[in-house]
Prior knowledge:
Distance between the termini: 68 Å
Strand content: 15-25%
Oligomer: single chain
Number of helices: 13
Shape: flat
CATH class of the largest domain: Alpha Beta
CATH superfamily of the largest domain: PAS domain
CATH topology of the largest domain: Beta-Lactamase
Amino acid sequence: xxxxxxxxxxxxxxxxxxxxxxxxxxxxxxxxxxxxxxxxxxxxxxxxxxxxxxxxxxxxxxxxxxxxxxxxxxxxxxxxxxxxxxxxxxxxxxxxxxxxxxxxxxxxxxxxxxxxxxxxxxxxxxxxxxxxxxxxxxxxxxxxxxxxxxxxxxxxxxxxxxxxxxxxxxxxxxxxxxxxxxxxxxxxxxxxxxxxxxxxxxxxxxxxxxxxxxxxxxxxxxxxxxxxxxxxxxxxxxxxxxxxxxxxxxxxxxxxxxxxxxxxxxxxxxxxxxxxxxxxxxxxxxxxxxxxxxxxxxxxxxxxxxxxxxxxxxxxxxxxxxxxxxxxxxxxxxxxxxxxxxxxxxxxxxxxxxxxxxxxxxxxxxxxxxxxxxxxxxxxxxxxxxxxxxxxxxxxxxxxxxxxxxxxxxxxxxxxxxxxxxxxxxxxxxxxxxxxxxxxxxxxxxxxxxxxxxxxxxxxxxxxxxxxxxxxxxxxxxxxxxxxxxxxxxxxxxxxxxxxxxxxxxxxxxxxxxxxxxxxxxxxxxxxxxxxxxxxxxxxxxxxxxxxxxxxxxxxxxxxxxxxxxxx
Length: 568
């Protein structure tokens, strides 16, 4: 093959490699951009849905409007806001729709819309795939066909309180366009650079070949370079900042550097008459011998350990010891290379740090203990004040406040008694709250049975306080209302944590049941408003009621990032 064809083949190969690398890089960047776009759209859709739900709750709860008026007022505000707002990008938009029989009735597209929903599509058609999922109560992101038949990146979110669906989307072509342009430009530049590089390589390689031929005729220079390399190795060995020693398989020192002598306190001549076992602390000999045996047997090539050395003056120091085995051409052990660094100061610092951490744990326990005591004092003061009240209603109010304070005090008491100050296991806490409330309401254990099933769920105090108050309110509610006229029954409290990290809490009783006319989201009782507020606002979860065979409250939420979820 002529030189010309070799150059052309080289250019072709390098061009293909460069274009392939550019294509892979652009593809990875494109996938990343699509994922980022998914996340942005998901945040936008969720924010819009929660905003609309908040407006609806404001109309219902704060303005006291009926549901139809509240729904109309919320939608008018939502549509008006989107008419005034223009999003960034040519094809980005937010779509709002509801299901009307077998059709999707669009209230808003392209930031424009009306409450009449004149714009419609079949519910189970091939178009409007994201909205179809949103109206089925699903939440997520996808790449699919929108209401105009265009392939889009979309995030869909249900608005459950209004039976609506929200979709935030952008055309896939808009996301892909800059990457296509960048890919074409990069490919052109790569081909040009490869061509120039190939030409330069050919031009440079000719004198290099002549130089190699010249070096071949002067083999003695290579021998000289080898000697210089050996000198550099010797200098590196002697002047290394860590101790270095060559040790024979039987433990005899073959060679040591000056730093190793400084660490051990022995002179080099003394160490060459000693064995490594003489430097090791007696308590570390077995572990060292085990590692050496494994290295000789071929199980490991290198091992590292933190161990103690006995210096010449009798003092004990801590060292970081890294050992590698060198074998000969037949695979037989030749010698060990041991690299030793003085770790005494670091070890002392670690001991001091552990002492500080232990002291911090003691202080935290004392804080939890004092908070618990202060809350108990407040509870006792409320109890004393309640004894002076003749009004039975006011006495019950003081009693409920006392039980809530006791629930928070139990959290700090549980943390004070726990080995782990960062989280609290639900099962023992629920049992203690249950025993306290049963005693407070005078419910005999043979009449009302409390059963706790907690799947070793553990939470931080940030999540435990609202969760504890919820358990206290729901358990108190069951004890007061579920078993009238001395009825017998059972209260079950269950807590589980899913592999995805969702904590599910259920409080169930087999009592008379919650009346159908009671709406937990629209009630004047402080206890139920406290439960819904803590579950939905503070924990950021959901709450639902099952009125079959008694009453069951189910609460689901994601623990905060500091929560452990499930304990080990």
